[in-house]
Amino acid sequence: MSLMNTATGRWIALLLLTLATVMFSVTLRNPYPASMLALAIAFIKGRLVIEHFMEMAGVTDRISRIIHRIALSWLAGVIGLIAVAYWIGAHP
Amino acid sequence: MWVFIMAELLVFGIFFLSYAFSRSQDVALFNASQAHLSRMSGAFNTLVLITGSYFVVQAVQAIKAGRQDACVRWLAAALGSGAVFLVNKSVEFAHAFSAGIRLSTNTFYMFYLSLTFFHFLHVILGMVILAAVLLKARAGGYSRQDHTGVATGASYWHMVDLVWIILFPLIYVLH
Known about the structure:
The complex is a heterodimer of chains A (about 90) and B (about 180). Helix content of chain A is about 80%, strand content about 0%. Chain A contains 3 helices and no strands. In chain A, α1 (about 5-25) runs antiparallel to α2 (about 30-55) and α2 (about 30-55) packs antiparallel against α3 (about 60-90). The model of chain A has no long low-confidence stretch (mean pLDDT about 90). Chain B has about 180 residues and is mainly α. Helices cover about 85% and strands about 0% of the residues of chain B. Chain B has 6 helices and no strands. Chain B has helices at about 1-25, 25-35, 40-65, 70-100, 105-140, 150-175. In chain B, α3 (about 40-65) runs antiparallel to α6, α4 (about 70-100) runs antiparallel to α5 and α5 (about 105-140) packs antiparallel against α6. The two termini of chain B are about 35 Å apart. The model of chain B has no long low-confidence stretch (mean pLDDT about 95). Classes of the chains: A mainly alpha (about 90), B mainly alpha (about 180). The interface of A and B includes residues 67, 74 and 85 of A.
């Protein structure tokens, strides 16, 4: 089993994505693309937590599948609407 | 527990969107105020919470394998990471208060203090849940066949982590 398929691999990926968020926010001059990138990274991190730390990936029973969908919908909805709010702020 | 977690996610979601859309009304004020926050402190706390979640994953895997002692050790490590988060956040709050920052200072700081303190309280509740699970695990209350309590406590802790994963870029990074 490769490292990235284990909990340890996903933990390392989450740490690296956090550091990437900070790095992009410091190095990218234009704040709007940097913000969108940070939101995209937050979505990837959130999905990793929901699917692998919460063990929602590959669930088969009906209730767990519903919870999985609600959690992912919450993540996508919140991050999507935050992106809309930042787009409004960047294009007054 | 999942109904409780979903309700918590809904409340935090409303908070996040209130912040984001309030910011769109006064971008300059939010950016100027955000510049006074320590991004490194926020990033450090993110790493600490993610690591705590990793420890909880290991605790669940340990009890599923019937290793009660290992489960207790991983839960203790997760509690330790929660304590580190609380200490670091308390230092950050102390710096903010000593700089004269209050809820009434401006809209950004109202959101910053209320959102992060609300999350702070959830970390404390998560630690109380993990401590209860740890005590029961130490007393031999969980096994390979019966580990629902560990998985349930773990889910709450992951929810606290998930919320911070959005809160950190929103408050400390996006500008």
